[in-house]
Amino acid sequence: MIRFENDYTEGAHERILQRLWDTNYEQTPGYGTDEHCEKARAYIRKACDREDIDVHFLVGGTQTNMTVIASILRPYQGAVSATTGHIAVHETGAIEATGHKVLTLPSDDGKIRAEQVRELYDAHWNDATHEHIVQPGLVYISHPTENGTTYTKAELEALSKVCRECGLPLFMDGARLGYGLAAKGNDLSLADIARLCDVFYIGGTKVGALFGEAVVITNDALKKDFRYMIKQRGGLLAKGRLLGIQFETLFENGLYGELSRHAVEMAMMIREAFVQKGFSLRYDSTTNQQFPILPDEVLTELGKTYSFSFWEKIDDNHSAVRFCTSWATKKENVEKLIEDIRAL
Amino acid sequence: MIRFENDYTEGAHERILQRLWDTNYEQTPGYGTDEHCEKARAYIRKACDREDIDVHFLVGGTQTNMTVIASILRPYQGAVSATTGHIAVHETGAIEATGHKVLTLPSDDGKIRAEQVRELYDAHWNDATHEHIVQPGLVYISHPTENGTTYTKAELEALSKVCRECGLPLFMDGARLGYGLAAKGNDLSLADIARLCDVFYIGGTKVGALFGEAVVITNDALKKDFRYMIKQRGGLLAKGRLLGIQFETLFENGLYGELSRHAVEMAMMIREAFVQKGFSLRYDSTTNQQFPILPDEVLTELGKTYSFSFWEKIDDNHSAVRFCTSWATKKENVEKLIEDIRAL
Amino acid sequence: MIRFENDYTEGAHERILQRLWDTNYEQTPGYGTDEHCEKARAYIRKACDREDIDVHFLVGGTQTNMTVIASILRPYQGAVSATTGHIAVHETGAIEATGHKVLTLPSDDGKIRAEQVRELYDAHWNDATHEHIVQPGLVYISHPTENGTTYTKAELEALSKVCRECGLPLFMDGARLGYGLAAKGNDLSLADIARLCDVFYIGGTKVGALFGEAVVITNDALKKDFRYMIKQRGGLLAKGRLLGIQFETLFENGLYGELSRHAVEMAMMIREAFVQKGFSLRYDSTTNQQFPILPDEVLTELGKTYSFSFWEKIDDNHSAVRFCTSWATKKENVEKLIEDIRAL
Amino acid sequence: MIRFENDYTEGAHERILQRLWDTNYEQTPGYGTDEHCEKARAYIRKACDREDIDVHFLVGGTQTNMTVIASILRPYQGAVSATTGHIAVHETGAIEATGHKVLTLPSDDGKIRAEQVRELYDAHWNDATHEHIVQPGLVYISHPTENGTTYTKAELEALSKVCRECGLPLFMDGARLGYGLAAKGNDLSLADIARLCDVFYIGGTKVGALFGEAVVITNDALKKDFRYMIKQRGGLLAKGRLLGIQFETLFENGLYGELSRHAVEMAMMIREAFVQKGFSLRYDSTTNQQFPILPDEVLTELGKTYSFSFWEKIDDNHSAVRFCTSWATKKENVEKLIEDIRAL
């Protein structure tokens, strides 16, 4: 079985494992105060072209989302998100468990638009009984989205502008950020993201690391005491150096970008094969997740050799499914898949 | 600087790193449903001499404590703990953040006694207005304690008996469990612990792993839906296999016990050296943490070569400090320390 | 200005005020343990034709909803509700503040149907990764709904059946329960409701009392320790007798039904007047809230003499508004309104 | 049985009941936006000699404590309180249910001292791993305390000074504030309290009202969006006017002070009788709660005619008990009690 079902099926890039070996007997202080974490922070600041940002390392995405969001909101505020946002649907109510509602905006492609945020904001404050309603307190976006789509620079600038006008911090879930930066046609740099978002994270788990998410806080008002939040939510890794070592490796020589580009290239080959064969795509994804709409017999046929994820039923005989590539995807496996698609 | 300041200063035992290399390109499903996790569970069941237990893998101690405790308590219940318990003092209110009070019992050595639990329980239910008071809902103990002390089998049996009489699940924080099992004079086996506790965990972070805690649930009533709890609290590692691989390695051939015994042996040598030199000990610890009471000039002298932790001021010229060994402690370093103690 | 904007604009029925006078210097124990509360409980048990129910008195609706829901759900569970449910939109995230998501089902009239609950339940448990998703834990309905509509006995029986099949307690928010019982065509008795719901409440605030909601718990599994929950959520009134006295008055001689019938009769007269004048209604309400769709000029005209609530914009020139009657509505005011409608 | 067991055994002062009658058919908007609330606010501002304060009305003490505290603290902060503080012992973990730890300071008389706060604050910030520990976020005091004692102006000024130096808002629970203002030897005015505290409340429930607590926020930084907090925590009374009417009545002509003085006078008579008879007092209370230490045979004897509360066992034959007076205490009952004490 060749697996395209998600982007966390393998371990980590070998350079990371090698670095873990090499540093194994170093004795370092705990909780992210070691030199590897410091170096990784320096590399990330450089990649963001900003010295005045705080960088923290957490273990996983849900943990990061709940920690960041709980650190920003007042008790009666909620996080604005697309209906499809990870925090809205796939985190077992982790945000609600911190006391906050997720305020959803309809979205077909996973993105939300500046106008939607403005409308929600205005609707709230124009309501005569607004104190009976959860107040919007921040805007959460994922980039790339859960559907593989990405924001353009113009879109992100518009969102950022509205958010700042409304006093709503903009938080980008970058669990797959590398794949967004490597997307075909992407015009957003890390520096742009750091400029336009108040806080975001650079996903490691799905982009070459064993685990780890690097939270970047650019808004001074959100920096204070964030380590208390990490500790309270169970995210302050005792051997914090493990996170430092991984991000150090990913960012010292451009490995993060390299791995991301590979995954996107593989995904584009798969996309092309499906399109050429005449299948349509559920979303116009330019990143490492592809969502072809396939008839049942094709699903059965491909399912003999490949694992992929069911996404949604389209009609009686068709479903959208997800093929995921990653930093670890082998080109030979993609080529075999393409051959099999052509042979359908 | 030779570090004795804690038991998480190094990476992991080499067999674990090797196993990570060897399995790196295996493609496995996520979230702890892979074969490595299954194998690790089987080994742990065997070590506990019980087939009917649930085993889950989480990343760190605070995360584990808050997840287990929040899964057990009703909203108006609290966790009974020694005043010195980790959940009471060193987790930034993680338990309170899940909505629950920590009900503390006085303790000088870090342990609580069966009679204390019974008294607290009776006091609660004998109070005419008990619904105005947080109801005791479970008993939390650490073994070894934060002070290096351990429960004897008789003590744990007494605690367990009272807990069952009172309907209070007994939860053992085993972040350093290996060192307790390896303690001089220990008469508790893993099977005893599984029999006497309703839920406990086997710490990996401090005993040879990069990270990881194996939660063992023995009480059927506490098993249901625990994976939802892990996910909600941010503890469901995407590449769950990393936890499986580590515990598989630690438990397939007795490595866990071996590493633990080494650390305790090193600690006992240090203890002996201090005692022979005439220093007293703050706690009668038989495990990997030792707490000598030392005059200021000795602290200054030893501090030139060794790092260790300040524990508490004893009088104007003396402080208790903590020397910590671990699976990674080098015998040569211990011998050098002993020599330096003798030479004081 | 004659107010039809809501059903809590006046104080309380005079018999209640009189009873407060008469009992003012009685010395009673606090927190709902007095004889008035006991009597009120007895009357309510009789009205429900059930001796084996627990009755508790709380102060207001949001407080009651959050207390009941938090007492039932496990941490990873959510409350299923219509999108229009009070807990979903008008309680400032009170449910989320207790850690729980509100899982919404689409509804145009404010009601949810048995099939919707079954579908949600099946969808959850059929999802391979269901532990990543909030688990449905109870079903919340309001009766009458926020739109003035009511459940028929057949509908409530169907809902109750599905809920029991799925192990989901059914919770009825009866903030306006009296008006539902008095609705034209209503075929549900209090005994039916007690039989079909696991917990519900009988609203006093909007039906003749100064304040107060009587929670009835019929499901034995939900009864334990409920007073702890009330206290913890701030709902255990020191002078609990005030609640007892009010419900005693409302239930000893049928006053509750009498007041409810009056309000519904007044509402039906208003409805009839709008319909006869050719206006349509946003919802087919048979209770004390009526939602005519009116052109802007009519709104302006009526707004000179009457206060009512804006509900929603229908098109460029029409809006739905809400006219609310209550136990305190004066017939002469309704007649004047009807006259003015006719004269439009 | 003549009851001295607490200060909420009767209803309300007759002027309040009369006012409820008189205003019963007024039609007012809900949720505290009516004219009675506005008038009550104006009276309270005048009593505090400050125009720039926000005044909100809530129903009860636990509700008020949890709402105020949750509105102030960041998620990782705790409320500093005496070990005997109401929030620490008698609110079923209501504060913890909002996610916050209560950080207790030892106290024998119910008061905490400025130096204790300073020490706790310094200890926190001097700890190298302070992010592992709950950060002090506000200071909670009760005045009078649960033991009937009161702060002098000098003590409150010292506390306030330290709190401001440490950036810790000072919150006074004034559930019995009237009795403190009326205490023998009291040198604190409402204006002093408004000047020295960041937020406090004026208790109505125990001082002549049916229920109700008036929260006064003097610190601008704590004013924003407080109504959202009240609504979310279930404290926004639909018929908010009931609170306005009560505080209007209590404050328009000095009734609050008058009732308070009566209760304290009655308490002082009881105190004097016990002292003259040679009994000692558990606390030096100058307010409406008195705590004589009595031998068992006296308890039995007095218990035949009077109800009072058990406080604590002092030795094998003696217990401290609580006699409570209130605005409603009848002088003839006090005189009878005194006679019976003398006759012992």
Question: Can you put this structure into words, describing what you see?
Answer:
- 4 copies of one chain form a homotetramer.
- Chain A has 344 residues and is α/β, with parallel strands linked by helices.
- Chain A has 2 domains: 2-7 and 256-342, Aspartate Aminotransferase, domain 1 (Alpha-Beta Complex), CATH 3.90.1150.10; 14-255, Type I PLP-dependent aspartate aminotransferase-like (Major domain) (Aspartate Aminotransferase, domain 2).
- Chain A has helices at residues 14-22, 35-48, 61-72, 86-89, 94-97, 114-126, 153-166, 177-181, 190-196, 226-232, 241-252, 255-276, 296-303, 331-342; strands spanning 2-3, 54-58, 77-82, 102-105, 135-142, 170-173, 199-203, 213-217, 289-290, 293-295, 306-307, 309-315, 318-324.
- A 7-stranded mixed β-sheet of chain A has the order 2-8-7-6-5-3-4, with helices on both faces. In chain A, strands 9, 10, 12 and 13 form a 4-stranded antiparallel β-sheet that branches. Chain A has a two-stranded parallel ribbon with strand order 1-11.
- In chain A, strand 12 and strand 13 form a beta hairpin.
- The mean pLDDT of chain A is 97.
- Chains in contact: A-B, A-C, A-D, B-C, B-D, C-D.
- Chain A binds chain C through residues 75-76, 78, 89-93, 96-102, 129, 131-135, and chain C through 75-76, 78, 89-93, 96-102, 129, 131-135.
